[in-house]
Batch of 3 targets.
Target 1
Amino acid sequence: MNIKKHVKRGLWNHLMKSGIEMGLASIIYEVGVASKYVNHAMRTGDLGLAGTSNLYGEDQLALDVVADEIIKDRLDHTGRVSRIISEEQSEIVIFERQSRVGGYSVCYDPLDGSSLVDVNLSVGTIVAIYAGDDPLQSGRHQVGAMYVLYGPRTTLVYGASNGVHEFTLNNLGEYVLTQEYIQVKERGKIFSPGGIRRDYLPEHEEIVKKLENDGYKLRYSGGFVPDINQILLKGGGLFMYPATTKAEHGKLRLPFELNPMAYLIELAGGAASDGRRPILELDCYDLDQRSPVYIGSREEVEMATQYFK
Ligand code: AHG
Ligand code: MN
Ligand code: MN
């Protein structure tokens, strides 16, 4: 095996070559470190915290909580994060000892789709990164975003000013570059409808019917990360989670699900809308803020927004 090749294409080497600010690079890298422990806990059922002190005593805790603690601990370890919000925390967490000057704020979903682990379907970690002390900013202000997909392979996708890139975890525990400057095609062949059909509002019903009539294939795993990853890497398409008669704001959360994915998809040449406005333009004022979402290839997102005019 050519060790030099592995090192050359490693995540830290890529971050350094990309000229990303050191604090932002260390946050992306440390989420990668955390993901290896999350990956281990998920695949071995070992909910102890390998490599960090055991925070839980004897009880078995949901994987969400274990993943959240591991990621929180690694973000604190960077010394460059001043505030975080997490899907698993009820309020903003402040890291007191951080250098407040030049700090970052991080919003993350430690384990999205966690209920799918029991049926051995793919799940993921989603992260949005902002400069400064305020994690509740509109998505347009992100300085970086990333996700980790725990599937047949464990892959990490990050985007900052330098494009969107994919790394794959190898059996040496290294994230090695597998795709660089990923681009979403203008138009795709798959769609994810979201929600429950009987609860659809008229506009969404029409959009789904049009996609079916145009011969798009339905792809919906119930996991946001694998469903978006498929659109990013398999040539485009449209993922939707609509407003419904039961939930006028849809289901997915703006701060740590929609904003980071919208940032990555736009950086890769795609688009993301709530049906009327770009996701990244929405004011983000509440940890639990939800929004309808139409995200993926430009042409399909544009088509969907026509129904809300
Ligand atoms: P989480 O497990 O973090 O609550 O998120 C699950 C989300 C997202 O992963 C997925 O796209 C959506 O839930 C699926 O929702 P439905 O089960 O209602 O289809
Ligand atoms: Mn989630
Ligand atoms: Mn979650």
Target 2
Amino acid sequence: MTPEALLDALDPEQRAAAAAVSGPVCVLAGAGTGKTRTITHRAAYAVQTGAVPAASMLAVTFTARAAGEMRTRLRLLGADGVQARTFHAAAMKQLSYFWPKVVGGAPPTLLTNKFQLVANAATRARLRPGTSEIRDLLSEIEWATCTLVAPDGYVAASAGRTPPFPAPDVAAVYAAYRDLKTAQGVADFDDLLMLTAGILEEHADVATEFRSRYRSFVVDEYQDVTPLQQRLLDAWLGGRQDLCVVGDAQQTIYSFTGATPQYLLGFRQRFPDATVVKLVRDYRSTPQVVELANGVLASVRDKLELQAQRPPGPDPVFSEHADELEEATSVARRCVQLIRSGVPASEIAVLYRINAQSAAYEAALSNAEVPYVLRGGERFFDRPEVREALLLLRGQARAVDDRPAALPDAVASVLAVRGWTLEPPPGSGAVRERWESLSALHRLAVDSPDLDLPGFVAELEERAAAQHAPTVDGVTLASLHAAKGLEWDAVFVVGLVDGTLPLVHADTPNQVEEERRLLYVGVTRAREHLGLSWALARSPGGRASRRPSRFLDGLLRGVVPQAPVARTPRTARGGARVTCRICSAVLSSAVDKKLGRCESCPSDRDDVLYDALRSWRAERAKGLGQPAYCVFTDATLAAIAEQKPATVAALVKIPGIGQSKLDKFGADVLALVTSP
Ligand code: ATP
Ligand code: MG
């Protein structure tokens, strides 16, 4: 692109910021107004006009993914060679260059297992934290590091926080953690920033060399910069002014990590000559979405009101559901409709407040055979607590039980062994997330009234197998935090009840306002279709005691109370006893049930049929634009090739073949099985 074309692609305010190539520049603007676009165009314009050599510009973004996207955009705009990195990646690169010169030898090894070291530090401090408490201790140490609080300042600085142990104990763990790192010659990610800043601050020769190399700096999402990152940025600048920052104070959502918008809001005080630009035209979303986004912030003072630029689109859809499973099933159904109407799956996102909420959506999308990608969180079945619980459930399912309890009770008593209770624990953070994960397993049990425990375990294993398949282009499942800066054609913001958004533990006014901003971030990710939903009860049959998020007060229009969604009928694999077709023994394990025989009994698989089924599956998956496992898993195909079901009744007895698979693929499979 020519320099003129780069500026022509911007509106007058964006253009003013992009044309100010030497900084200081500050773009204060709402969501979707083109901040990220402005800084990429500005960088390309500066490079193309020769104002700034590409190699001397450093652009910093919030996540590795955003940095990657920025590099691609810069390349497309003809600004190859501009560095686009996260603070951490930039610091790591600089440290490995300067360390040998300043200190000698290799820089400290990056500590990959912080968790273990914090556990050891806690033992030194004579604490006995559980897994979740260790994670909460780690978060507390990270917060202190990012806000430049040393162990001896922790007690005073942590007033108003809710650490997992009394503040003096946390301070002791923090000090022990630092000592252990030093003794082992390792550094964590945050240390990289501090060490790099320290070298630049203390070694004038290094600072001179660095500053002759880099002279122009750009920071995206500047409202979420931490004091530690700002210190590194100051060390890079060394008093120079060639800095361009863009951000939106209304999207400050990382305060809990120590991030603060004060640097963005105080930019003009610090740089009185700065070019400060405000953008209000929203190029991303339809007027309907923009109106709702403005409504979410109606009570907030000093905000920038967004002005929609796009043509009108559909109204946002508010929907109320009886329980969370209904909600997830309904959202999955909407995803199917959108995909059928031509919206690519990769242009759809489901956004929630906490990662544990993904479980219901992973299950619902799997059931609806919609591929999905999980962003910024572990897949449900990969979480340690879920893996542990599955092991226990599997063990219990194998035990002979003459008087089996109802499934939800059986599952509850197994989960109780891992400390799970029906009521949530007090406190937030990792302890709460763990409880949410186990509760999600319990809810799946409540939703499976016709399964016994072995059948339930088989169901979970089936889901785990399907969901472990490599990720593909699918619907994005992400927390609201992980959705920052991104955009999709269709967005569902789910779980919008008081207690989840705002989270029940957000009790100070500041914390509640940060939760409101999370909703604003979520709503403003949508280009066109926006769904907002909530469930009155947590579980099927539970008390409908919840209310829609207070942030929706005054905004709800045309709420659609959702009729119960017909769930996929379960097939004969439910409570009935299944016996081995070779030796007639009662089968209990999931693998045995799937095969319809003891694993140790001889296989009678028809290999020709198996190969034919695999070829057929590859064709169908290709035609559907879905991964093969969304048609059938390998295990299901193997079971078909062994059992050769010739009728619909025989086919649905194979675990993994529910009503929707039967509707879609039943005729094909039966034709293959019965073909001569
Ligand atoms: P967020 O606050 O969510 O990070 P943002 O302010 O960084 O948003 P961008 O992602 O840069 O916004 O832009 C939002 C969308 O609007 C993008 O698809 C972008 O290409 C488009 N856009 C921005 N400015 C213009 C413009 N002047 N003309 C046309 N499209 C634009
Ligand atoms: Mg942006």
Target 3
Amino acid sequence: MTISMHGTGIDGSRPVAIGRAYLLNREPSPQPAPIAASQVAAELMRLDRALEGARLHLERVREQIPEGTPKHIAEFIDSHLMMMTDSALVDATRDVIREQSVNASYALQSQRDTLVAVFDQMEDAYLRTRRDDIDHVVRQIQQFLGAGPDRAPVVEIDVDGRVVVAEDLTPADTILLRQRGVAAFVVEHGGPMSHTAILARSLDIPAVMGLHRACERLHDGELLVVDAETGSVLTELEPGILEHYRARLAGFDAHRRELRRLVREPAVTLDGTPVLLLANLELPEDVTAARDNGAAGVGLYRTEFLYMNRDVLPDEEEHLENYLSIVRGLDGIPLTIRTLDLGADKQIPDTVFHPARTNPALGLRAIRLCLKEPGLFLPQLRAILRASAEGPIRLMIPMISCMSEVEAVLQLVSEARRQMRRDGLPFDPLMPIGGMIEVPAAALMAGALAKRLDFLSIGTNDLIQYTLAIDRVDDAVSYLYDPLHPSVIRLIKHVIDSAKATRTPVGMCGEMAGDARFTGLLLGLGLREFSMHPGSLLEVKDRVRRCDRRQMSQTLAPLLEHLEETPAEELLARLQP
Ligand code: PEP
Ligand code: MG
């Protein structure tokens, strides 16, 4: 019978995937370490001590089972204890140590692989659980052998067409897995606005986050349906269910084909208001998707991925090359480059840089980190300026929380310009410099920021996190992450109104901008510039073209007075075309 489990869905334009599970191994496969013949006896003793330690540990666990606990729990532990003396596991491991002169951890692992391979041939669900028992037992013995907890490097695995199931995933892993053809993600931890989730969405990879104990409940190699629309993962699939999902996949593809007819159509509301629809880019290769989906420009290029999966910092030339490849690919449409936003959930290896960790979201992140570490920031600033000689570029500062940060950046930019003039390097002297509104403090002083900057862009992912005091990475509080919270709507309105008062362009580049359910509301609030992952552009354009902007504002005006009393569903329902 089909089994369904639930987490939080991260859906793009193709919110369903069907594929076999790939359990991202949390423990590294122990590597063979040759040992001298004279060490074999000591290694065998080490194995015996580990077996004894694991056995005593399990016996203690069994003794502590409270009275009245169902009998099968104790039996389950007994079966593990028996396995620890089973010759197929223990004697065979000893043989590997003797015959191959290798360390005990590796010998145990290779015997585990041999046994699991036998179980993998079997279709029977009960026998499959026995295979998992072997894994649990081996893991326990490995712990007593002192095997480390890190997982195998993502770069070495083959996940083409597979559903990667992991305890957690870093944004850096997500990128590597995408390059290796992953079909979907199922992750035990992480909120829907974590950068991993945003990446998955922007890469159009369906994902279910916050599915607790997924690594235990799902089995390597089994066929899964990932339904990111409902946040569910289905296993033990009945044929009817599989058929249903195959038909849904075909439906999504048909809808996407249907939307494609809008690519060259203008983004204009029914009553003639032009709307700027821009793309968010994570990687230079996303330029193709941005152009294919008719983006009028790039409203957010997240440059931190330039720093990931590597051991040395990029220098000015590498930044420049990266930006030039994008500017050239965009063929004259504008590119907004956001300066580095490292330090919260987008970390780089400690060997490269070591940001403060006590409370990363509130710590030395983004522009704070850049101003503290000019060695990190200046090569990027100079490269952005140099790239501006080749095409329309805007520079955007993340996480502004006070005016002094803006002043400091403007000063650094003037200094960089002065140096470049001196060195005869070309740049655009009028390159616009803007700031992201991601912190309530910045939203509340948007008027002052608008006077000092050339444009503003509302980063709702962080603005919601900081307004509602909800860690966007923590799935335990993701139920509180609410773009329609009255305070969030009021802050957005305040930013738009403040920017308009000084005729400063204002856009939105958080995930909210790419969610077509909110298009009517945002148009009603006065937003005219939306930046989103390329996969959402046509869906939002469709919505824009069916909305009457004036009517949206008129409907919204009285509702704004009663946001606390208006249920979110009603608000949204009244603001659909
Ligand atoms: C945001 O916070 O809304 C945003 C666009 O930036 P990021 O998601 O990269 O933090
Ligand atoms: Mg942000």
